[in-house]
Amino acid sequence: MGKIMCNKIILPLIIIFFSTTYLSAQNTGIYVPPQFQKIYNGDTRTWDGKPGPGYWQNSSDYTLKVKLDPGTNLVSGEGSIIYYNNSPDTLGNIVLRLYQDFYKRGIARDWGWRDTDLHNGTNIEKLTINDQELDPDTAGDRTYTNFIVKLPESLPPKSDLKIEMKWSFTLPDTITVRMGKYREGGIMVSYWYPQVAVYDDVDGWDRTEYTGSVEFYNDFNNYDVEITVPENYLIRGTGEMLNGKEILDEEIYNRYLLALKSDEVVRIITPDDLEKENITKEGWNTWKYKAKNVSDFTFACVKDYLWDGIGVVVDSMTGRRTFADVLYRKDDKNYNEGAEFSKMVVELLSYHLPGVSFPYSHITSFCNGRRGGGMESPMMTDDGAPERRSGTFELLFHEIAHTYFPFYMGINERKYGWMDEGWATFFPKDFPPQIDSSYNHYVSTYWRYRPVQGEENDLPLMIPSRFIKGYSLTATIYGRAFFAYVSLQSLLGDALFKKALSEFINRWHGKHPLPYDFFFTFNDVAKEDLSWFWNPWFYDFSYCDLGLEKNDVGKLVVKLIGTQPVPVEVSISYVDGTKDTVTESTGIWRYGNRKFVVPVNDQKKILSAKIITDKIPDYDPSNNKVVF
Ligand SMILES: [Zn+2]
Predict the structure, then answer these.
(1) What is the Å distance from ligand 1's center to 135 Cα?
(2) How far apart are CA 132 and CA 151, in angstroms?
(3) Which of 53, 269, 535, 599 is the one with CA 20 to 30 A from 388?
(4) Is the pTM of this model over 0.90?
(5) pLDDT over 50 (residue 45)
(6) How far is residue 169 from each of residues 78, 129, 286, 368, measured CA to CA in Å?
(7) Distance in Å, CA 220 to ligand 1 centroid
């Protein structure tokens, strides 16, 4: 529905015809702060969850040259940024993010380090704006990680400006937070260039500092990047590799071309190749990459790494392919299957959930050799090497799933981490049993959530993520969000859930959706006021606990003791020795219902009954069984 529906005169009519569509703050059933009411009453977003006719966002074209010296760990860059102001506002400042200042002595961080791990911050050697040279020391304020540059002349709406910079920093020596030198010849370069912060219709400039915990909130930009590294280093980065043919050994390049179209894994760089030390042409090489409409640019820089790749058809109608490739060392466990795993993941994402054809031309996974953990960026993942096969598969699944949230969907995970980590945790839910039939993703995620359950640290998801620290942050934005989405899927049923999720993605990909856009879109597609569900899971302090009891008239009753609504599964044993399982959707708790009489076979006498808690984060197991 379009904007006209907000008109007060037709509102009563709409409510008669479609009582569950919410067209103003008063009847959304959820708390919409006045700051956001103003936005939804304006023209950038609508009360039914769509981008409004006046929706806008800003963007940049980055043309960057970077040299990485693995001998000294020095990264030196220069280049230009054309910044497009599509907003209706005149900008007096421009906020640049200098992520590497995260390692600067004296700034606030979410955790502490030894002084020897730190440096003096990003060295800015040159800064010009619209060809006017500025003194980097006096051009603006350097806060912790932001550089707020005062523009010599303000930037009016619908105009652009050119920033030129030259900068350098040293890769941190021993620390690797989402990037860095993991081992000799194994480097992931992210958070490496001065990046214009997001200016949006909600907060204006995003001035959130990068203190460690917060992650992405980026514009959709174009990148033209040249990366110079010594011989035999391979670069895989965001976007299209433009000059691999000129740099790579001919045989290796031909294998790469073959792999793009192959349905089987091609070993592009083999142990034999590594022995011959003939990966690239001699001397320093400059790799060229180009990426359009992506929210970041990162690259892996590897030497003595194997490289496997496989083509994946991600759109069965057009036959469009994605290239799934992995970079790893021979002794990185499970990674000889990495390309095959990535292919399975990309297929599950494209055809199952979210069921949206994989949007990029490649997904490259770099193995950093550490025990676990991973990090995502557009078309690139940076992954540890878990012991178990299921661990590696799950890790790749999680990081590749991030392609949709926060990249295809420009989530502000600095405020709403659950809109991103929650989904990346949710999609691997339907874990292929052929990988490891003993792995249970629900249980593994439950143990992620469990540490905060029943504590004051189990925080409502709507608390902006940047204010939540430590295990409370991960427990809630991964664990609690996972079970919220699982319960939502049960509530709507698989088909309607997928329809609503697809609609949300269709409406907002390439844009910056807010939580309200998510809630309103699901209300709109489900044609139901779901606020009774949104409130306990997203807004309230709450926990999940089901209980079982026999009521006054001998009926079996499930009680919602904690207030998080979840699906119900009860196993019943009858006196005659037979058994039964009753499954009910989250919908039985509609509109705050707290008791549910379990439909049982009245012809039989119940011996005992038990709540099955495999797929819910039930807090107290002691009230889950009743003996008749
Ligand atoms: Zn994640």
Answers:
(1) 39
(2) 10
(3) 269
(4) yes
(5) yes
(6) 12, 22, 19, 21
(7) 20
